[in-house]
Amino acid sequence: MDGVLNLNKPAGMTSHDVVDRVRVLLNERRIGHTGTLDPLATGVLVLCIGKATRIARFLEAEEKEYRAVMRLGTTTDTLDAEGQVLETRAYTPPAQQNIINVMQGFIGTIMQRPPVYSAVKINGVPSYRLAREGRAKPLEPRPVTISSIDLLAYEDPFVTIAVRCSKGVYIRSLCAEIGDALGMGAHLTGLERTRSGSFRIERAITLESFGEIVAAGNAMTVITTIDAALAGMPAIPVSEPETVRVLHGNQISCPSTLVNNGGDLVRLHSPSGTLLAIARIVSGVLKPDLVFC
Where would a tag sit more exposed on the chain, N or C end, judged by fewer CB atoms within 10 A? Predict the structure, then answer.
């Protein structure tokens, strides 16, 4: 079975737990996800199944959206509600416009330091393991892009926000940073991923429902094909001679309408409509990046 599953991850499970459960349901070892969600978090967890694991890196790179709730005035060691409280500060509840103004300062490409309680590896060891042993060190800041932050609700001490961002953004860190900028600290209390690329929460299926669908023998009715999962990339039909070249990993000419889109990715389809490859536009030609057939 090959394809992509848009799963609504439940709270209390790690992303790896979900992957293991689906592996058992489908009797398929080749399953991976395209972006970790902490146990506290729920929402869109995109799973790549079978041959679709080869496109995970493309799906992982796509933009994501979150709905997050943070609590003002309290900081924790994990930056979320599952951690130990480090400090509780007395503060005057900020005005709503003040919160909005502070959040706007985080929009754009910023340097963000991953939490020490994260899966980032240090010399091959996950940082969270070192943190649990009291040996964690601050991680190096990384460039990430936050496209928008919208205030959805505010009832002190809770602030609900919607975030649209690049891969690699830690919403826990963002909430803590907003709290620090407000002068009172904050931590994440709830998180839902509402979109990952083209996969949205409205179309996500629960783990329980998926188990029932698999038991009924209808798994493919909720699994997106590899080609459809990559629909955000332009599709280019190629000729029979070009098909042979692509299957051997050779570059082919690029349509004149795309020659100036250097670095962009496109899908290449055979004359029969079969997905042949993902190619990158390089110096006016199409260079295969991943060949499927």
Answer: C
